[in-house]
Amino acid sequence: MNDQDSQDPAPYYRAHVFCCTNERPEGHPRGSCKRRGAEPLRDYMKKRATALGLRGIRVNAAGCLDRCELGPVMVVYPEGVWYGFSSEADIDEILETHLVRGGRVERLMLRPEDRKPEDVAARLAAEQAAAE
Amino acid sequence: MNDQDSQDPAPYYRAHVFCCTNERPEGHPRGSCKRRGAEPLRDYMKKRATALGLRGIRVNAAGCLDRCELGPVMVVYPEGVWYGFSSEADIDEILETHLVRGGRVERLMLRPEDRKPEDVAARLAAEQAAAE
After folding, report:
1. Which of the residues A7, A66, B77, B93 has the least number of beta carbons within 10 Å of its own beta carbon?
2. Which residues, including other chains, have CB under 8 Å from residue B21's CB and lie 6 or more apart?
3. ipTM score assigned to the predicted complex
4. Which tens digits make up the pLDDT trace of A18-41?
């Protein structure tokens, strides 16, 4: 934190979620979040956030967040926490654990060094082995 | 900052900019960023950020950020600093002052309590009067 940060206004949203909904052509080597089902899951998240009556939270669609191989992805600011997700159950867990309780869904979190789904799987397996 | 924050991964992007490009029908009372020229300005920002060789910065389009009356708007995370802008000169100043030098463009910054352009104008006038 520098001098500028300390003068910044209070956050406008307590949590601001951006779900990538970018679409690439069929067969593109990187794939795209939309072709992996991002749009209905983003719609579901928005609907559930409203139903839960969460205040100070905004769920937005965004253009390509450039982590296509891990998609669908979202990023939650100001924390800057990234998640890869693939089901309504994943969305429910992110809503309940992160946005309601302020925790983290470790099994879905992406690290800066994660590039491909295999990276995530290997890292999670190593973390689990270390914990046993 | 709580215990969770201290365990979060390092930021994936040093600065992540979201420019609202939402469009509402002609004549909608709130207006919309796209109808106020958001899209070419967002394209310009992306092009200029690339030309400046800025590293670790991502400029994205986003759906409605719900500050339509002040549009076009953008928000820069993780700082959570909002700007209203209307020209390529505004974009250049945000790029140079905020994203290159880490400062703030005070004349374009939006405060949480700003709802309409008149609010911003009145606040800036009061700030200037207080400084004289």
Report:
1. A7
2. B33, B34, B38, B39, B42, B61, B62, B63
3. 0.93
4. 999 999 999 999 999 999 999 999
| Boundaries of every domain in chain B | 10-131
Please indicate if any CB of chain B lies within 8 Å of the CB of A50.
no
pLDDT tens for B20-32 read 999 999 999 999 9
Is A15:B84 a contact under the CB 8 Å cutoff?
Answer: no
Residue closest to A86 by CA, chosen among A108, A103, A106? A108
Q: Is B77 close to A82, i.e. CB distance below 8 A?
A: no
Please give the CATH number for the structural domain made up of B10-131: 3.40.30.10
CATH fold group of domain A12-131? Glutaredoxin (3.40.30)
Tell whether the model's pLDDT for residue B3 goes beyond 70: no
Cβ–Cβ below 8 Å for B62 and A8? no
Q: Measure the CA–CA gap between A115 and A70, rounded to whole angstroms.
A: 7
Mutate to test the interface with B, among A7, A60, A114 (most CBs of B within 10 A): A60
Q: Check if A66 contacts B (Cβ < 8 Å).
A: yes
User: Do the Cβ atoms of A7 and B104 come within 8 Å?
Assistant: yes
C-alpha distance from B66 to closest chain A C-alpha (Å):
9
Pairing mode of beta strands B15-20, B57-62: parallel
